[in-house]
């Protein structure tokens, strides 16, 4: 007698994405349009066509859980691309072809920006991701930890270790790297809202240039004086 296979717990048996994936798809679309702070879990459930009105709560517990899952959905591809760029940089550094300090700084900024900027070509999914991260970083109490960028095994942690020797020590202490990361995501999120623009090469190149200037700038005497008075 042949045993009967149990029916899968998801809709994949019917050739449809499972409920969790549909909820994330719906969240990306709604977040791309309105941002992650104004969309309720119930709205996401309805948009996903979930039969249970609290489906999003079941799968993600709360909004932060859903946001974390959305970011983690995109993280592996971004990390893979950044890791490849950092590998290229370290090979160039080892064989003496990485250029002078200014060129090395520009290359490393590109390694931060370009994997994120690739999401501009991912339609609604990429737009939802970029706007979500921008929203997280512009909260009253933002942190890179909230978007998974502080993990010691992560590509951003490695990027920070490589770029630190090229930065002014005072700028590091004053969180210039965080300001640059926030600036990057705000600009990328804004770009997703520019209708009809499909060639992002000039935009991305200028963003890399701008962030290179931001990170490479020396702290002024006024800034250092004010810091000492804190």
Automatic annotation (TrEMBL):
Signal peptide: none annotated. SUPFAM superfamilies: Homeodomain-like. Residues 23-51 form the HTH tetR-type domain. It holds the Pfam family TetR_N. It comes from the Bacteria. Keywords: DNA-binding. InterPro entries: Homeodomain-like_sf, HTH_TetR. The keyword DNA-binding applies. The keyword DNA-binding applies. This is TetR family transcriptional regulator. It comes from Pseudonocardia ailaonensis. The lineage of its organism: Bacteria, Bacillati, Actinomycetota, Actinomycetes, Pseudonocardiales.
């Amino acid at each position: 007698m042949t045993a009967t296979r149990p029916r899968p717990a998801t809709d994949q048996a019917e050739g449809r994405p499972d409920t969790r994936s549909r909820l994330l798809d719906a969240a990306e679309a709604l977040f791309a349009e309105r941002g992650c702070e104004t969309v309720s879990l119930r709205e996401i459930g309805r948009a996903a066509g979930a039969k249970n009105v609290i489906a999003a709560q079941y799968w993600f517990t709360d909004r932060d859980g859903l946001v974390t899952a959305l970011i983690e959905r995109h993280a592996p591809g971004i990390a893979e691309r950044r890791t490849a760029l950092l590998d290229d940089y370290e090979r160039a550094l080892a064989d003496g072809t990485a250029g002078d300090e200014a060129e090395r700084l520009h290359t490393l900024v590109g390694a931060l920006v370009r994997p994120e900027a690739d999401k501009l070509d991912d339609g609604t999914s990429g737009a939802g991701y970029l706007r979500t991260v921008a929203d997280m970083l512009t909260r009253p109490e933002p942190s890179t930890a909230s978007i998974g960028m502080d993990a010691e095994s992560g590509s951003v942690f490695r990027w920070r270790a490589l770029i630190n020797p090229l930065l002014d020590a005072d700028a590091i202490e004053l969180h210039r790297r965080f300001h640059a990361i926030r600036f990057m995501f705000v600009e990328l999120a804004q770009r997703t809202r520019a209708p009809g623009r499909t060639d992002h090469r000039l935009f991305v190149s200028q963003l890399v240039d701008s962030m290179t200037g931001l990170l490479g700038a020396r702290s002024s005497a006024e800034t250092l004086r004010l810091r000492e008075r804190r």
